[in-house]
Amino acid sequence: MLLLLAAALPSLLWDGPPDTAATLRQAGIERIQVPAAQYESWKSAGGLAVEAAHPDGAIQLSSPGVQYRANVASATTTPWLVGNGWRILRNPRGRFIYDAPGAKAALAAAEASCFGADAAVHTDAAGLKPFAEIISMLRAIGPNGPPVADIGFIDDGSPAAGEVINLLVRDNLLVKLVAKPDPAMKLNVAFGSKEFPKEEAGNPPMMAHDIRGHLTDERRSLRIFGSAVVVARLTAAPDGVRVHLLNYAGAERKIDGLRVRVLGRYPKSHVTAAGSPADELLDYSVDTDATEFTIRELKTYAVIDLAR
Amino acid sequence: MPGPFPGRVVKVHSARSIDEESRAANPDAVRQMLTAGMLALTGEKRKEDAWRRFISPRDVVGIKVNCSGAPQICTHPEVVAGIVENLTAIGVPASQIWVYERFANQLNSVNYPRYLPDGVHVEAAEGEYSRGTVLGYDPRTYVETSFFGEDDTRSNLVRIAAERFTKIINVPNSKEHQAAGVTGCLKNIAYGNFSNVARSHKSSKTFTYSFIGTLAAVEPIRSRTVLQIMDALAGVWHAGPFSRFPQFRFYPKQLWFGTDPVAMDHQLLDLVEAKRKAEGAVSLFDRSPEHLGNNRDPNRNAFIREPGHIEYASRLGLGVFDAAKIQVREVEL
User: Residue B131: what pLDDT?
Assistant: First the structure.
């Protein structure tokens, strides 16, 4: 089981020389991938599990974060998130590589885990400790269950559909890519159908908004209030659900207070948040059809396990 | 709201209330104006009895100031100090008085504590380094609506207003507002008490027409806001509420008193409209797209203004808008 979990955790892709091993250990790194050409020289480095990286065929992902573009005129003041969730959803069996310097290494690892990606994160010395903290957290919380989704999206693989999926993820509309309408979904969206024509995707935010309107906010399994830079996900758990909160601005700024609403009655909760002190959830309420709470502080990643 | 005096507005003028050069208020003149205004509003003979009509020593009192143009223009600390002086004089302990705003950077720029007795709290819902936080708001009291498709559709009430105060004294100042037309009693108690309200403006469109009254009508704000005191010592007739351009400030040298925010704001609308007319600026009610633009020009504005929000609020029962039914009493000191 531990081996399986370790295999599912994002790897650190490290191209420094073997004499950096002590730096890695000090930062809390236990396992690395190195370029195949350096593998032999790294084999003797003590205290680290070393594998040879095989980047061929891996999909390069963007360094996750926020682009505020304050000096650029645009149709919206909503910060632009650079997220890779939609690309991971489109390639569930893909292998991915992030190039994420500094504290963004933590966000990259959290994003990869949250979306279930087989990913390696290439970072620099400043990224080692944040990466190790997230890996430690991922180990502590254990594996995720299957994702919970409200929307089944029939993807035609086009760039336009990709952008719509990106915006659905970014707007916290829980989406699953399906080959045909899934009766378990609250809403099925066939991209290019009469109801959701391709021409509408010329304005992707409008199409995402239209999909949200068809679903309705009342039927959304998960909603968040208080930040425009957080992506939330939901995975199933044996006796409840797991809420994932990814702060895409986390490398620069923590969030003080985020309100979360989850459909369903969950009187029990447990929070795990990387880099934040263990904390109780605030203003916890369980109503007839939903559970709400406030997380006091969100750095890069937090997981809230809710149980019946 | 509208409280015991619907349609009644008392205006007290004192030529020595503020120095136009230094923008400093005269504490003695302000004290006299507060007393004259409260006596005229209530008909009482003693100022203590006038204040006791609204506040008792057991109350926890929130004084809602307006600092959105601070430090250039804001609720004058001398006015707040005068109100606190009267509250403590009728037995409200300083520790039961809060001066509050939404944003700490604006509130702190005024330095209210320097003017107030020890023990009075000065508190913002959102801290200097935590702008946008939800922690200062009550998660259970909110208005939920979508204006432009935003994902966060809630505007929550300031937590101390929801959980702590038994009475609120609303102390706005007299300003034009580039979205709402004017920002007076209604907007100060509405947008000044709820989170996530800037989402109601985008490009040249603003939903202030209905949102201001809707927020002001939310309980417990509506029933706990017992007194309106408009700080019209100084005002802004264009490019409000922030007042970056001193040429658009003016000095009515007045304090207004009432319990009806609609009647008070109708008076504010008339005041700002008259000043704009005197300055040759287009009406607040102008909706011409050609007047959209950089508001350094008094005939241009970023939004199509919605001064109709005041009449809309009257339809929610928040006060009297009909000019024929508003009784204005003017006091000259």
Answer: 84
Q: What are phi and psi of B234, to 5 degrees?
A: -125, 160
- Alpha carbon distance B180, B195 (integer Å): 17
Domain housing A195: 151-219
- Whether chain A has a CB inside 8 Å of the CB on B131: the answer is no
Interface check for B133 against chain A (CB to CB < 8 A): the answer is: yes
| Nearest residue in A to B152, CA atom | A225
Chain A residue with CA closest to B137: the answer is A257
pLDDT in tens, B131-181: 889 999 999 999 999 999 999 999 999 999 999 999 999 999 999 999 999
> Among B97, B81, B88, which Cα is nearest to B34's?
B81
Task: Give the nearest partner residue to B135 out of A217, A227, A257, using CB atoms.
Answer: A257
Select from B224, B226, B200 the least CA-distant residue to B211.
B200
Q: CATH code at A242?
A: 2.60.40.1180
Domain for residue A114, yes or no? yes
Mean pLDDT of chain A: 92
pLDDT tier at A291, thresholds 50, 70, 90? very high
Residues of A with CB under 8 A from a CB of B: 77-78, 171-172, 205, 209, 212, 217, 223-228, 255-259, 282-283, 285, 292, 294, 296
Number of domains in chain A: 3
Residue ending a domain, among A112, A141, A170, is A141
Which of A187, A203, A219 is at the close of a domain?
A219
Nearest to A211, CA basis, from A190, A189, A181, A179: A189
Q: A285 vs B140: CB contact, 8 Å cut-off?
A: yes
The reply to whether the predicted model has a pTM over 0.90 is yes
pLDDT digits (tens, 9 = 90+) for B91-133: 999 999 999 999 999 999 999 999 999 999 999 999 877 888 9
